[in-house]
UniProtKB/TrEMBL annotation:
InterPro entries: Lipoprotein_NlpA
Keywords: Lipoprotein, Membrane, Palmitate, Signal
Gene Ontology cellular component annotations, sorted alphabetically: membrane
SUPFAM superfamilies documented for this protein: Periplasmic binding protein-like II (SSF53850)
Organism of derivation: Enterococcus pallens ATCC BAA-351
Signal peptide span: 1-26
Keyword Signal found: yes
Compartment list: Membrane
Protein name in the entry: YaeC family lipoprotein
Amino acid sequence: MKKGTIMLGLATLFLLAGCGSQPKEATESDKKEIKIACNQVSINSLEAAKAAMEEKGYEPEFVTFSNNIEALQAVNDGNVDASFAQHEPFMKSFNEQKGGKLAMMSPHVYYTGIGLYSTKYDAVDQLPDGAQIAIMNDAMNRDNSLIMMEDAGLIKLTDEKDSGFTSLDIVENPKNFEFVEIEQAQTVRSLEDLDAATCFFTFMFNSGEDYKNYLIRDQHAEDFPISLIVRDEDKDSDWAKDINASFTTKESKKGINDHFKGVFTFYE
C-alpha cells in the first residue's frame, strides 16, 4: 500500500472521530429557557405555577406588558415564547386583525367573567336615563359587554348578525344609555367619572374592589377560555405542553385560588 493512501485513510478516521465528538445541537424539544408575556394580573398565576415549571426543568422568565395587543405581538414576532393572559376569542381577533399566527394550548386552564359595576348605584334599575357606561374598546370584549347588557334586558341588538357587535348595532336603548369605549385595563378607573362600567373580575380584584359586587354579569364566561398562547408552529412542542400543564397541578391551582379568591374557575 502506498504511503499516501495510508495517510489519507488516517486523516479520514481522524475527521470522522472529530465529527462524532462535536456537541449535539439543541433541538426545540430541548428548549428550557422560556420567556412568557403576562400582564399585572396574570403574573400572579405565573408565579403560582413557577415551581411546577422548574420541577420540569424549565427556567421561566416573566415579561410584563401593560397592553394585551403588545403582548400577543411580542409572541407573534418571536420576542417572547408565549403569553398567558388573554382569552381565546381575543387571540383569534388578534390573528384576524394583525395577521397573527398564534394558537391557544389545550386543555384550557381556566376562565373568568365580566360584570357591569357602579360606585354610584346599587342596582341596575337605578341607572338613570342617559347614563354614561364604559365598555371595553377591543372587538371581542366590546361584543361581550353589549351581549351581557342585552341578556339583562337593558338594550336590544340587531338580529342581522350574531357577533362583532358595536354600539351602532343597538336597535333598542330604552334609557338612552351613552356607551363610552375604554381600554379594558382602564375601565375600573372610569368608575370614578362615569355612571357604570363593564370590567373584568380580574381587574376589579387587582384594584382592591369586590369583584362580586356587580349589577349584572356575563352569562357565557366559559366560552372565553384562558391558557398558554404560543406561535402556531410551537403548539405541538414538549415545552409548550409542559408549561401549559404547569398551571393545573394541585399546588399551582391552590396558589392561584389562594391569591385570587375565586376570580378564576378551572376547567375540569
